[in-house]
Amino acid sequence: MKKDVHELFTRFFEEPTRESLAKLLTSHFGEMDYLDFKEQWPAYPDVARHMLALANSGGGAILLGVREDDGVLLSVGLDEIRDKSDVDKGLRGFFPPSLEYLPLDFQYRAPEYGELNGKTFQVIIIESDDRKIPYQATRDGDGVKANAIYVRRGTQSCEADHGELERLLNRRIESGYSSSNVLELEEHLEQLKVLYGELSQYSYTSLFGAAFEEIRRPIMAISQPNPHYPKQSYEEYIANLIKNKKRRIEHLLELEG
């Protein structure tokens, strides 16, 4: 790729403004490994596959409203502008929450934008974090398989082969990040759910009040206190466990202050 095109993309990726996108679109370069162009909105599973591949390959962007013709980009604009909330609903089920992305709208309504004037584009910027790779597809869809790992292979989004998967894992290892903390957190949260299940959300008071207790006491008179029964009630003990478990989770998430 030409150095000036790389600089234009870097500038847009770091500061995605209308002006920086205009300079990128009017440079008339072809599709590349960290940029994917779509003339109109494809199906969400297809978009998700490209997003997973870009995230696993260092990040990038999907530009919607751009057609590639014989290696040249034509900024045709979108016929349909999709609401960000609809986009989020359509995409979120296909990849883990750790995959971060930013959908953006760009409208050009001034003559100084030349060929872009009167056109609208949408861009999805996909972030990448070596500590979180590989990003896996989380469900099946048209063109995407649950648990598959996709990467960019040139300008294509393909399922990773053995060598590509090995490189992904090496990148994660080199980041110095361990998945053990994530697993430990999940275990702590599951244990916390179990503890909460041992407590009732509400306490109950007898509708009969003290009068009923006066009647009941002679019946229970034959019972003797068990000297081995703990002074701390079961619910008090569980409540204390919950308190300690919460403290452990906060320590794991570095929320203590």
Give the topology, please.
Elements: H1 3-14, H2 18-25, E1 35-38, H3 44-56, E2 60-64, E3 66-69, E4 72-75, H4 84-91, E5 101-107, E6 120-126, E7 150-153, E8 156-159, H5 162-174, H6 180-197, H7 209-219, H8 234-252
Parallel strand pairs: 1-2
Antiparallel strand pairs: 2-6, 3-4, 5-6, 7-8
Structural write-up:
The model has no long low-confidence stretch (mean pLDDT 83). The strands form three sheets. The chain has a four-stranded mixed β-sheet with strand order 1-2-6-5. The chain has helices at residues 3-14, 18-25, 44-56, 84-91, 162-174, 180-197, 209-219, 234-252, and strands at 35-38, 60-64, 66-69, 72-75, 101-107, 120-126, 150-153, 156-159. It has eight helices and eight strands; from the N terminus they run H-H-E-H-E-E-E-H-E-E-E-E-H-H-H-H. It has 257 residues and is of the alpha+beta class. The protein has two domains: 3-174, Methyltransferase, Cobalt-precorrin-4 Transmethylase, Domain 2; 180-252, no CATH class.
